[in-house]
What does this fold into?
Amino acid sequence: MIDYTEKIPNNVDLGRDRVLQRALEHWQPAYLSWWYDMGPNESHNFEVYLRTATSVEPDGWAQFDYVKMPEYRWGIFLQPRDEKRQVNFGMHKGQPAWQDVPGEYRSILRRIVVTQGDTEPASVEQQKMLGLSCPSLYDLRNIFQVNVEEGRHLWAMVYLLHRYFGRDGREEAESLLARRSGDTDNPRILGAFNEPTPDWLAFYMFTFFTDRDGKFQLCALAESGFDPLARTCRFMLTEEAHHMFVGESGVSRIIQRTCEVMKENKIDAPSDVRALGVIDLQTIQRYLNFHYSVTLDLYGSDVSSNAANYYTSGLKGRFRETKLEDDHTLQEAVYPVSEVVDDKINTQQVPALTALNERLRDDYIEEIQAGVNRWQRVIDEAGVPFRLTLPHKGFHREIGNFTGHFISPDGKILTEEQWKAHEFEWLPSPDDYKYVQSLMSGRVAELGKFANWIAPPVKGINGKPLDFQYVRFN
Ligand code: BYC
It folds into this structure.
């Protein structure tokens, strides 16, 4: 069990490293000040029914109780060490896993940790205003759970920076609190984390699509030969699962409610659907197209020498690396990558090492498709004739081989003019955002009540009923 009398709960024996402990205790007030400024708006006095990790054992990481969020114990937890663990891929394959940063990889490793760390506070900033328009206390509690855990994931990366990267690491940890999502002068590092999350449909889409990029990137880093990073990411993944559940079930409940209203009233035109205060399936499809395409960009360029270096150096593996059956060095292997040549989308084989971003993106797409199929079942079961689809991989891309091309959702190459003529059939328009936000003008806070535009969930949190007081406002 973690000792909660310590200022920073941890299972890394922090008390024995005074220098590190002092560095973190110095960073903690700066973190809290960031939380007060950029964390959930007007929420500091709320008591929220949250889970807190008290140990990494299966029965210890989900302890539920009321907590004021600024008093949440953001701890540092690593999965226990496996003494026999090795570097499992790349040129160092077979060596004992590194317990310290290999000098030659210091700067690229720091860059990976910083990029990962930067996304965590970014997402909290993006979601800052949403507590004011929640559809229920259940959903309010869920967004706060996501927010405090993203805060903990920032702590996880800051621990690595302080513990293993000396003065540079401490400076990077400060910068993580200085950048701001969407800021023109000092933005967050990756594109999707500078996009606004203006409403709850966007929030659920974000947690379904973008948190799942988190899952795949963390899985790749959990294979790292740098053991403290691998162990940190493994524990983060246990928390990530709930975030994706919030997203998938949130969108599913919105679809369910829309379909109920369509059937009850025998309507299907989007304007009729909107007149009854629910979100038309066409708008849901446009949100899906946006969040999917922006998240695909997070995997980086299709052909990337950075990705090849990360792999060959043993720093970032593939999804489920140790379960894959090949030589784990990929010297001879090839992988298919698409590109636009003379108004055609061609697929060509490139060295697999350089295509590792594309490969991870493909693994991700497979899992996303399965989730969209589950949403489709809700529509089919309601007997509504509508198909939700994933757009073509090249649709609305700003990173990689499709950048600068105009690709329709069904994969046709268009001129800019043709694209512009259809843009808002495929992506949410200012009007769509206005409509969705008009449904979410205030907080639904009565016990057991849900906004009209979303169905209640199947069950509550931690066995509690749906009309449980998930948040006390004080
Ligand atoms: N936006 O070779 P390239 C999560 C930059 S989400 C802006 O294509 P590389 C979470 C790139 O940095 C998971 N810039 O890419 C989810 C590079 O810049 P420099 C986050 C981009 O390096 C929800 C240049 O373009 N974790 O945890 O192979 C809520 C060319 O680089 C973007 C990670 O991402 C972009 N989308 O791969 C909360 C894992 N993409 O060097 C949390 C760590 C690329 O020219 N990161 N660039 O200045 C990585 O492994 C890699 O950095 C990336 C990029 C996969 C992101």
Observations:
- The chain is about 45% helix and 5% strand.
- The two ends are 31 Å apart (CA to CA).
- Residues 182 and 194 are 4 Å apart (CA to CA).
- The longest strand covers residues 334-341.
